Amino acid sequence: MKISQIQWVADRGWSPEKPGKLGDAAQLVMVFGHRSVLSNLQLLNEVEQAYPKAHLLGCSTAGEICDVEVWDKSLVVTAIQFEHTEIVGHSVQISDTADGFQAGERLAQKLSPDGLSHVFVLSDGLNVNGSELVRGLVKHLPETVTITGGLSGDGAHFEQTLVMWNAAPKEGVIVAIGLYGDRLTVGCGSGGGWDAFGPERLVTKAKGNVLYQLDGKSALSLYKQYLGKHAAELPGSGLLFPLKLRTDADEMAVVRTILSVDEGNQSMTFAGDVPEGSHVQLMKANFEQLVDGAIVAAKKSLEGLGQQSPELAICISCVGRKLVLKQQIEEEIEGVRDVLGDKAVLTGFYSYGEIAPFKSGVECVLHNQTMTITTLSEA
To answer: Which residue of 32, 129, 253, 368 is most buried, as measured by CB atoms within 10 A?
Structure first.
């Protein structure tokens, strides 16, 4: 595997060089950028012309990861030349499907299972129920195939997210690419680091990813009581206070974060399902544990590679973590680098939802407020 990574920022242009080092040899080019930059078709045309035979895959972000640095309003371009791996990808428009589940089904059914090693997914971050999307994918893919990816971001604005697949970036798009070949090894892991507080409450009224009542009371009113002065800043402040969710005592809990609130219906919409009968508990940030969570994710992803050394690491972390860690945000990326070593190329973005198993060998789920890492290596 050969990898070339470059970046564009407004005050200096392309660095360390212009696009095109791998040229015709690149099969896949991953493009992550701020919505305003990703919408710059002149920049995307430069990338497309520099890698004429490559698939272009990317999305808008809440921050871009380039090596151990985290950027805003940049474009990070990672061109990949695989030695023994083939790329097949498909996209759907969410408006052309009944829901996220059907979108996941359609994408999975388009990918031949023969020789399929891994599926990587990028999705619109505001108009898709990520839990349904993952369930649709899992239903029609072999159990041996790992699935990772994320929901695109829009900073802390929550206005519009974009996804691209061999075309101009658009709203409402979901892309799944299949990596084919028996020489490819993939590791994956996810880690959080949030502290739960307050009583655990029962979800008494919800539909899909929309929560109406907890313990028979307005969920939004209860949530605002806990947020205090931060309630006036919803939905953005909700990133700092996600919910821990479990459906039964033996299930590993997942984290859910708010996408929007509806004052009229007294409801909250989350990035993934909040099923009736499940239990939720409010969470708050623990700085050191957030960084430790990223390190845990890196260690889990490394375990999945066995004896192989990682060549590429795709890091997808949540915008909520970025808002908490602020100027120290790069500490979680530096922690990942310490685990994976100096040779792995790090790319990725800050998202509205992360798609991955907790570790290699278990079923994929939608996460919020986690760092998820996908490591790849070719034998």
So the answer is: 32
Interaxial angle between packed helices 330-340 and 287-303, expressed in degrees from 0 to 180 and rounded to the nearest 10: 30
* Secondary structure of residue 72 in the 3-state scheme: coil
CA separation for the pair 265, 263 (Å, rounded): 6
DSSP state of 253: P
List, for residues 191-249, the tens digit of each pLDDT value.
Answer: 999 999 999 999 999 999 999 999 999 999 999 998 999 999 998 888 889 999 998 76
Side chain identity at 297, as an amino acid letter? Answer: A
One-letter amino acid identity for 353? G
Region class of 282: left (phi > 0), else alpha (psi between -120 and 50), else beta: beta
Residue type, 168: A
Residue 178's beta-bridge partner residues? 88, 119
Token pair for residue 33? 């950028």
- Please work out, in degrees rounded to the nearest 5, the angle formed at the alpha carbon of residue 37 by the alpha carbons of 35 and 39: 70
What is the rounded distance in angstroms from the CA atom of residue 8 to the CA atom of residue 16? Answer: 9
For 168-198, letters b (16+ CB in 10 Å) and e give ebebbbbbbbbbbbeebbbbbbbbbbbeeee
DSSP for residue 156: B
Give me the residues paired with residue 31 across strands: 58, 77
Are 130 and 355 spatial neighbours (Cβ–Cβ below 8 Å)?
A: yes
Chain position carrying tokens 């033996």: 250
pLDDT tens digit sequence for 317-356:
999 999 889 999 999 999 999 999 999 999 999 999 999 9
Tokens of 158: 């929550």
Could you tell me if 132 and 207 are in contact, meaning their C-beta atoms sit under 8 angstroms apart?
no
What separation, in Å, do the N-terminal and C-terminal C-alpha atoms of the chain show? Answer: 9
The residues that bridge with 195 in the sheet, in sequence order, are 284
In 157-236, which residue ranges form alpha helices assigned H by DSSP?
219-227
DSSP string, 23-68: GGG--EEEEEE-HHHHT-HHHHHHHHHHSTTSEEEEEE-SSEEETT
- Rounded-to-integer distance, Cα 350 and Cα 64, Å: 6
